[in-house]
Amino acid sequence: MYGNDFSGEDAPGGLLGEVEAAEAALRAAAERDRGAAGPGEDLAAYFAQVIDADQKIEPRDWMPEAYRRTLIRQIAQHAHSEIIGMQPEGNWISRAPSLKRKAILLAKVQDEAGHGLYLYAAAETLGISRDELVDLLLNGRQKYSSIFNYPTLTWADVGAIGWLVDGAAIVNQVPLCRCSYGPYARAMIRVCKEESFHQRQGYEILHVLAHGTPAQKAMAQDALDRWWYPSLAMFGPPDGDSTHSAQSMAWKIKRFSNDELRQRFVDMCVGQAEVLGLTIPDPDLRWNDERQAYDFTQPDYAELMQVISGNGPCNRERMAHRRHAHTEGAWVREAAAAYAAKQKNKEKVAA
């Protein structure tokens, strides 16, 4: 039994069902005539009506500038996270324990690059170029997920990233399939389907280790011990300290608060850890019959703020690597631009 084999509303299988439902809702919404703002109609009022009706805002629609800026910030952070997130696992491709493991991990890292591409393309529909977004990342003016500033010390860490980090990403991102901004919602449909495979792959790695030798099981437990609380912190600060959540939920960019998503993730992981035979490193973790949910110890939000501020274990290493890769890849971008210009000129001459 692997991660996606769990049944129930809060298991990854149930979450994939939500993705399918969101995809069906997108198609249904596209078929409904939502009308258009008439001459002299208040555009802000029309925007609010579209949001209230659970329709999608599209790139050519009028939108408040704050809505556009919020989307750019969120989608860009998501795209940057996919690209930076290739690094912690990428350095294990050549060290994976078998050719099969190498091929699977290579495919996963390639998927992450594709996710970044989808998301940068979605952000570009808001009137900002990919080059601008990359410059903002490289200059430190935009962020990526704090989780990718932790080191991958053992092969078990690759499994922990798949199970916990990608599992947290799925819990966070499935509701984004119903985001009020059409291009983002559509991109998330594909991203979530692929992330479900990543979560399963990581869970399977840990399952093999946890049912292997005592040393392998100890390695798996050590990885869980180190990645559990950073994974909980992926959902952001508690609701009372979250700067953007309330407005994002009002605009239906987000559908659930940080704390609601964190709770859902914990409730999902407990049963999975039991099947693995591993122990979640929280002595206060226990079922609350009144809330019908698990009580758990919150992550260290002071540490989260330190990592976000650039003081995590690998912040400088990650950004130095990204800047170097960007510089080394300049000739590829220049060659692609020159080829595109040449093809465009040929088409112009032929016309």
Structural summary, described in words:
The chain has a two-stranded antiparallel ribbon. It has 14 helices and two strands; from the N terminus they run αααααααααααββααα. The chain has 351 residues and is mostly helical. The protein has helices at 12-31, 43-52, 65-84, 86-90, 99-124, 130-138, 155-173, 182-210, 214-233, 245-250, 258-276, 301-311, 315-328, 330-350; strands at 286-288, 293-295.
List keywords for this structure.
351 residues, mainly alpha, 65% helix, globular
Quick overview of this protein structure:
With 351 residues, the chain is mainly α.
- Counting helices, strands and paired strands, the structural category is mainly alpha
Distance between the termini: 60 Å
Following the backbone from N to C, one meets helices and strands in this order, namely HHHHHHHHHHHEEHHH
The strand order across the widest sheet is 1-2
Q: How many β strands by DSSP? A: 2
- The unreliable regions are 1-12
**Helical residue percent band:** 55-70%
